Amino acid sequence: MKKLFSAALLGLMGMAASAQANDHIIEKQGLYYLQPGYDVNDVAEFYWRSLNGWSEKPANVAKYFTPQGVFELPYAPVEDFSFFATASKGRENITRYFTGMSEYLGDLKYAGWKGWRKVVTAEPGVFVFEYTSSGKIKQSGGDYNQQFIAIVTINDGQIASAREYWNPYVALRDFGLIRKTQ
């Protein structure tokens, strides 16, 4: 009876451990991939893993993208603030962009992917997510809080494109680049 109880307890512990690991996300040669059979929750976790903590590890983001993957910020105010980019194509450019931005932001954390709003589109491999992040502005020590909507396309088990929509006013205000007039 004691052996049976121990075996059952070990089985439950193993199930709890495997529930925390995502069998649809694997690492191969330093890059990350979704395995066939993934669903919207797997993609949300995959995208969250690529973003969460990038301010401390900016090279991590590109490990989830295809070699020619694109990270887009269509609302980035690049005309007036050149440190933003509207698009970074390829792993090297994605890493360069996030490395540059890590000079401005620290301790950036994204809300847990389980709480994200998730939409599966009619187009295979295309997902829409709504989520938030928070971090610290390195120059001032002030808070940075942002809301996002992202359209993420998966191809060959990696992110082929991620298009994030966010409020540039919040970033410019929190970075101290603009002020309220009254």
Oligomeric category: single chain
Total helical segments: 4
Number of strands: 9
Approximate shape = globular
Structure classification: alpha+beta
Which series of helices and strands comes N to C?
HEEHEEHEEEEEH
Q: How much helix is in the residues?
A: 25-40%
Largest sheet features: 7 strands, mixed
Query: Distance between the terminal alpha carbons, to the nearest Å?
Result: 75 Å
Structural overview:
- The chain is α+β, with helices and mostly antiparallel strands.
- Helix content is 27%, strand content 35%.
- The strands form two sheets. Strands 3, 4, 5, 6, 7, 8 and 9 form a seven-stranded mixed β-sheet that branches. Strands 1-2 form a two-stranded antiparallel ribbon.
- The N terminus is likely disordered.
Give a short overview.
This protein has 182 residues and is an alpha+beta fold. It is 27% helix and 35% strand. The chain has helices spanning 2-20, 40-51, 91-101, 168-174, and strands spanning 25-28, 31-34, 65-72, 87-89, 105-110, 117-120, 126-137, 143-155, 158-166.
